[in-house]
Amino acid sequence: MKNYLFNNGYYPLNNRYYRFILINFKETNNHHNFLNTLSDALDAKDSFVIGDDYLLFYFDQDQDVIKEMFLSLSIDYGIIAKAFDSGKIDSRRVEDFHGLYDFYRDFLAKKTYAFANVNDLILEVIKTDIKKIKNLRRPVLKDICDNSQIEKLILSFLRNNLNVTKTAKEVYMHRNTVINKLEYIKNATGLNIQNFHDALCMYWLITIK
Asked: In 50-62, which positions are buried (b, 16+ CB within 10 angstroms) versus exposed (e)?
């Protein structure tokens, strides 16, 4: 992955989409065993180090499970560390990795937290320098950026205070179709816009261009 991301090399994995979890240790004692255990649990496909940041690359897994796993292993190994989970990244766009990593370095690296994800990153950008949110639009939304029907649905859902029934009526869709579209959006972006904070993130991603 390092050659692909930094040296114009070929993409070495089978899936079009991948994720990474970035781990930064406050202390380095016993972190190798911790990383090996976490890597096995994630079924990590590759890993490398950038400075003090350890990156593990993997495919889809439940994000809540990963968070609980990381926090539990940190206690088991007596590790003081923090982690950032990237969410899904499109391998066709190398720049999306660099965009997310750079935003992490600028907005989250110096913050105090145990485990953060893209939602946390977006909220931090909103609080700190909201105009820069447009640079996260493509890495987070991916193909949704080019899907006017989905964008229309999202804006309707937000306008109707996250009410599925009212949204379905406004966009002339069956209620179950709207629910399926919301699940598609969640899987594509990591944002569950039926949740207020995720909906806030989506609002700014959609409206600031």
From this structure: eeebbbbbbeeee
Rounded to the nearest 5°, which phi and psi values hold at 90?
-85, 120
Residue 29: pLDDT over 70: no
> For residue 28, what pLDDT is reported?
67
Where in the sequence is the domain holding 158, given as residue range(s)?
A: 138-207
Dihedral angle over CA of 177, 180, 186, 188, nearest 10: -90
Model pLDDT for residues 158-169, shown as the tens digit of each residue: 999 999 999 999
Task: Tell me the two tokens of residue 31.
Answer: 């972190």
User: In terms of Cα–Cα distance, which of 70, 65, 77 is closest to 33?
Assistant: 77
Q: Which residue has the tokens 């909201």?
A: 130
Domain-embedded: residue 68: yes
* Euclidean distance between CA atoms 82 and 40, whole angstroms: 19
Residues pairing with 89 in the sheet: 18
The CATH number covering residue 147 comes to: 1.10.10.2840
**Residue 32 per-residue DSSP state:** H
pTM reported for the whole predicted model: 0.90
Do 44 and 57 meet the contact criterion of CB atoms below 8 Å apart? yes
Cα 98 to Cα 55: distance, rounded to the nearest angstrom: 13
128 CB-contact burial (10 Å; exposed 0-12 / middle 13-18 / buried 19+): exposed
**pLDDT 10s digits, 94-111:** 999 999 999 999 999 988
Q: Are 85 and 63 in contact (CB under 8 A)?
A: yes
